Amino acid sequence: MVDQVPDRSIIFYDQLGCGRSDSPEDLNLYSISNSVDDLEAHIKALDVPRFHLFGHSFGGVVAYEYVKRVAERPQYEQCATNENSKGHICQSTIISNSSTSVAMSNEESDRILQELEVGLDTQDASTVNEAFWKRSQCR
Known about the structure:
mainly alpha; 5 helices; 139 residues; 2 strands; two-stranded parallel ribbon
């Protein structure tokens, strides 16, 4: 991406539990709301007044929820249209390779798992999950 957009600063960060980020054992910390809080904290800490947001996979969910959260704030409309605003304005959002419906995604995963159970003729969850991973995730 950096090579494709050489005239812009691009900032990547590792979400909680990914890459070099902390991996807390408390699973309650892993939520969409907390992920949006983290994104918002990064934006504020970097003090970038205007930016474009790109979210890939789960990052797309976080980007969508961030934009939704900001847009629902009463002061957003005034802030977004005021050139002298001190706020952090997301000028555009690109969501890539993200599920549009978690329910639909879960239904499809369940369907594929059931299909694999029949095809493998086993109920062993580790075997079925490994086959699912190889077929659907490992590309």
